[in-house]
Structure formats: C-alpha cells, structure tokens
C-alpha cells in the first residue's frame, strides 16, 4: 500500500480494507521520511512499513514474513519508535506543579508516606491523598511505576548528579 496514494490516502485505505477484511495483510510503503505517517499506517492496521527506496527484489522477504503473520518495520522507524517510548511526553511533566514534581521525586526515591508528609509539611493522611492523586495524573498504578516513569522522564537526573 502506497501511503501517498490518492484520493483517500494510504492510511484511510488501510483502515477501510482492515475493517472489511481483517485477515488481509498489508505492507505500507512510503517515499517520505514522515515517521508519523508510518506510525499512523501501523495504527490503522498495516502489518509492516518499509521505505519505497528498498530494492524491489528485497521486498520478497518482508512480504513472505508478513504473509506468515509477522510484522516488518523499517529499521529507522523502529529506532524512532523505541526512543520515543523511553521518554514520556513533555506535556506530562509540564502539566505538573512544582509541588507535584517535588512529591514525584520524593516517592520515586523510595521515601515512605510519613517522611513525605514531613518533607511536604502536611499530615500523613493528606500525603496519602496527594500520592494517590499524583499516581492517577501520571497514569500509573503504583509507586514503582511512578519511579520508573520519573527515571524515563529525566526527573531523577539532577539527583544522580548532585
């Protein structure tokens, strides 16, 4: 599937085909370096993505792989997708107040609720509520996941340097 094909465009065509024939295997091809377009095609249901610059004889292996039910990705796209999953969106960190960031840092270093309460100058009960609220806003279920997210976001880098 050529992602730049008219009139609907490749992504819309992939959605259309997959909605009507979900078992159909689709390899998306693009002549641009637009990784967002490639990601959109994969989210629409494409089973693989490669650049149009690949030699025609080099398509045989990827097409056989897709026909066998596996996925195929251009190495550049794979690298980009992997690097983008390491760091959360900057909007998440930007949406937090300085107090939220302080709380996130404290809980990410393994501090107990009673110690967090003392550092934040609130009651232990209030600290528990604050932690629960922060976990909800971060979209995680526990302190360990929050700490991992803090590490990926770079929040703990200043602590390591200090």
The helix count comes to: 10
Q: Termini, distance in Å?
A: 52 Å
- Principal-axes shape call: elongated
- Order of the strands making up the biggest sheet: 1-2-3
Describe this structure in words.
It is a single chain. This protein is mainly alpha-helical and 162 residues long. The chain has two domains: 10-86, Response regulator (Rossmann fold, 3-Layer(aba) Sandwich), CATH 3.40.50; 90-161, Arc Repressor Mutant, subunit A, CATH 1.10.10.10. The chain has ten helices and three strands; from the N terminus they run αβαβαβααααααα. The protein has helices at residues 10-20, 35-44, 60-67, 75-86, 90-94, 98-108, 113-120, 124-138, 143-153, 157-161; strands at residues 27-30, 48-51, 72-73. A three-stranded parallel sheet has the order 1-2-3. α6 packs across α9 (143-153).
Task: Give structural attributes.
162 residues; mainly alpha; Rossmann fold; Arc Repressor Mutant, subunit A; 2 domains; three-stranded parallel sheet; 10 helices; 59% helix; 6% strand
Question: What is shown here, in short?
Answer:
With 162 residues, this protein is mainly alpha-helical. The protein has ten helices and three strands; from the N terminus they run αβαβαβααααααα. A three-stranded parallel beta sheet has the order 1-2-3.
Topology diagram in text:
Layout: H1 10-20, E1 27-30, H2 35-44, E2 48-51, H3 60-67, E3 72-73, H4 75-86, H5 90-94, H6 98-108, H7 113-120, H8 124-138, H9 143-153, H10 157-161
Parallel strand pairs: 1-2, 2-3
């Amino acid at each position: 599937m050529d992602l730049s094909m008219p009139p609907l465009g490749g992504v819309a065509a992939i959605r259309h085909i997959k909605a009507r024939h979900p078992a159909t295997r689709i390899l998306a091809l693009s002549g641009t370096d637009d990784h967002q377009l490639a990601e959109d095609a994969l989210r629409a249901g494409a089973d693989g993505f490669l650049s149009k610059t690949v030699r025609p004889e080099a398509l045989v292996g990827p097409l056989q792989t897709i026909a066998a039910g596996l996925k195929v990705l251009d190495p550049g796209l794979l690298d980009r997708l992997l690097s983008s999953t390491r760091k959360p969106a900057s909007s998440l960190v930007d949406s937090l107040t300085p107090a939220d960031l302080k709380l996130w840092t404290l809980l990410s270093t393994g501090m107990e609720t009673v110690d967090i309460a003392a550092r934040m100058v609130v009651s232990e009960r209030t600290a528990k509520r604050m932690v629960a609220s922060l976990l909800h806003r971060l979209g995680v279920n526990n302190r360990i996941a929050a700490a991992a997210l803090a590490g990926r976001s770079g929040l703990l880098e200043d602590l390591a340097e200090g």
